[in-house]
Amino acid sequence: MLISIFSEGHAMSHQPPSRRRAAPSVIAAAALLAPALAFPGQAVAYAAAGPGDCVKPDDIDCNATSITGGTSGGGGTGGGGGGASGPVQPPDPVGLTENQGVGFVDVPGEPPAPAPPSTFLLVQQANDSAAFPIPTVHTAPTDKTYVRLRTNLWVEGFGVVQTDPVSAGAQTVQATAKPSSVTWDLGEKKLVCQDAGSKDGETCHYTFKRSSTGQPGGSYKITATVTWTVSWTCEGDDCDTGGGDLGTTTRTSQPTPLVVSEIQTNTGQ
Length: 269
Fold this sequence. Notes:
Elements: E1 3-5, E2 11-13, H1 17-38, H2 43-48, H3 98-101, H4 119-128, E3 136-140, E4 144-146, E5 150-156, E6 161-162, E7 166-167, E8 172-185, E9 190-193, E10 205-207, E11 220-235, E12 243-252, E13 256-261
Parallel strand pairs: 4-13
Antiparallel strand pairs: 1-2, 3-5, 5-10, 6-8, 7-8, 8-9, 8-11, 11-12, 11-13
């Protein structure tokens, strides 16, 4: 074999002209046979088509612009599977705060102020803080009285009760309890007086009709129950309403023994 060296420094193999012309012919034949081997029934159509024509089976797109991978078939000793995979977890966000990373966006400025509590809640707090006194019983005569003798009655602790103001936001609530009556349990009868009574007995008194001899310990156990009427007021722009009633509240005294005796008369006979 002869080798000719050109001035550019390249080497070219000298082969007989017939062999050099045979290589392009083989390539052209292979190109024509490829569709015929894939689709034998349409080999004639491919052969008849011109250079610019597209003759194809129904499942081939001449104008396809992309190829989507699928699962390749296995075969022989080296077949392998390929194709699309499952969902892919996106990467962690970069440059975001913890809240932004889960879908929350920081809003500039101060957070909004919480809503003020309801007026009713403040009313409950005020009512719960009210300090109602336990009444104390007094009688005249003291400790011992007599049948058919007027016994005067009065109590300590019959007064107005007002709570400290309870404030939240633009509202201030205060509860006020006013005494309205005293219910006396005298052992042989119950009596209602509209005020605290007094030592002189002008507004509240009672005359016993029976002695307490048959009672436990030989005395009546007297109690006095004071009733207050409670109301409340609210001042401020956040008030749901300006005020209202809370009903009544009562406090009862400790039992106080009172001996009631018969008046003995001596006719001298």
